[in-house]
Amino acid sequence: xxxxxxxxxxxxxxxxxxxxxxxxxxxxxxxxxxxxxxxxxxxxxxxxxxxxxxxxxxxxxxxxxxxxxxxxxxxxxxxxxxxxxxxxxxxxxxxxxxxxxxxxxxxxxxxxxxxxxxxxxxxxxxxxxxxxxxxxxxxxxxxxxxxxxxxxxxxxxxxxxxxxxxxxxxxxxxx
Length: 175
Known about the structure:
Elements: E1 4-7, E2 14-16, H1 18-28, H2 34-46, H3 50-67, H4 70-86, H5 90-107, H6 110-126, H7 130-147, H8 151-174
Antiparallel strand pairs: 1-2
Helix pairs in contact: 1-2, 2-3, 2-4, 3-4, 4-5, 4-6, 5-6, 6-7, 7-8
């Protein structure tokens, strides 16, 4: 079951049922598998518990680095970067997402590269850099199409492209 009910067209943040997310957090408890850690990070992030999300995301990166495949480490690093973004650390998030996107593309992991570009675009969007946000969203769309991504992923990327274009147009009119 997906916890995401949609995306806010202004902020591009996930719209979730917070109560349902908290129920799932309680079910997960203190499980230490990488999958459980990553799920906990995301749930903590979308419910606004950013301090715990940061601590668990750092733990998930360490766990992935010690014993998982390279793809799992990249996923953990992307999720860690999204927590940094939510905390307002845009430069650190951008740097982490850039290295993740480049490595994933270099390995030919289109879906993972698209995931990193989509999130780097969201960092740029939050930082009001709509030109770079739009470029990253377009790159993510291309990679997702190439990877045969599901319709909901393509849709979220198209929504992000439209939002960046609206914001960019609004910013140029205001200046």
